[in-house]
Specification:
216 residues; alpha/beta; Rossmann fold; 7-stranded mixed β-sheet; two-stranded antiparallel sheet; 6 helices
Length: 216
């Protein structure tokens, strides 16, 4: 159910090292481009699990039988931080429909908070493959809420959840809350520590701010 891509040596580890590096993070264009590159790597890995059919392709010298995708997955991203990551998926799944979700934390007087989805935009996903991506998964509550929100658009045949950095607590929460037979989780790296303020340590910081500038 959980695939951790950093467990195998590849260029993915180079790009994760760069998005974590506080010096390289000063260049927001480089940070965004690394998120795109990571999205492309995730797309390639997930593409190995999809369904293909042979297609006859005419070349200048004859006919070649090539396995091609039966159907492109629907791509869904959470908040602005996921936009470059989602763009990497779209670079490879270039015929895919896309969904966008905007959850937010609602704070309470006792310093606790709940997560609500403020807005979502999505095509029909019934019977399709869904890739739901977020740059980071801390507690996992936003991801579960967004998954349930997308189910209002129809039940996908299978869902792939993709994140660059997750906390161990967040991954455990997803495993408890999501249907095991319908969901596969893909993580670039899993960090063990999650603070009381829900910050992943070592993590990489606020991906949205690093990619697009600090919020007011």
């Amino acid at each position: 159910m959980v695939n951790v891509l950093s467990e195998s040596n590849s260029l993915l580890n180079q790009f994760i090292a760069e998005v974590r590096d506080v010096e390289i993070q000063q260049d927001s264009m480089r940070f965004r481009e690394n998120l795109v590159r990571l999205g492309e790597i995730f797309a390639y890995e997930i593409s190995k699990t999809l369904e293909y059919k042979n297609k006859e392709v005419s070349t200048s010298l004859g006919i070649s039988n090539v396995p091609t995708l039966v159907e492109y997955p629907v791509l869904a991203g959470i908040l602005r931080a996921a936009l470059p990551f989602q763009k990497g998926f779209l670079n490879f799944f270039d015929k895919s429909e896309n969904a966008f979700l905007f959850p937010y934390r609602k704070s309470h007087q006792n310093h606790s908070f709940t997560v609500q989805v403020e807005y979502s935009s999505a095509p029909g996903i019934a019977g399709k493959t869904l890739i739901l991506c977020d740059t980071m998964i801390a507690t996992g509550s936003s991801m579960v809420l967004c998954y349930k929100e997308l189910l209002s658009k129809g039940k996908p045949n299978h869902t792939h959840i993709a994140t660059i950095v997750a906390s161990l607590e967040g991954i455990d929460y997803l495993k408890k809350q999501l249907p095991r037979e319908d969901v596969t989780i893909w993580a670039g790296a899993i960090d063990e520590e999650l603070t009381a303020q829900s910050y992943i340590v070592p993590g990489l910081g606020d991906a949205g701010d690093l990619a697009f500038g600090k919020k007011i």
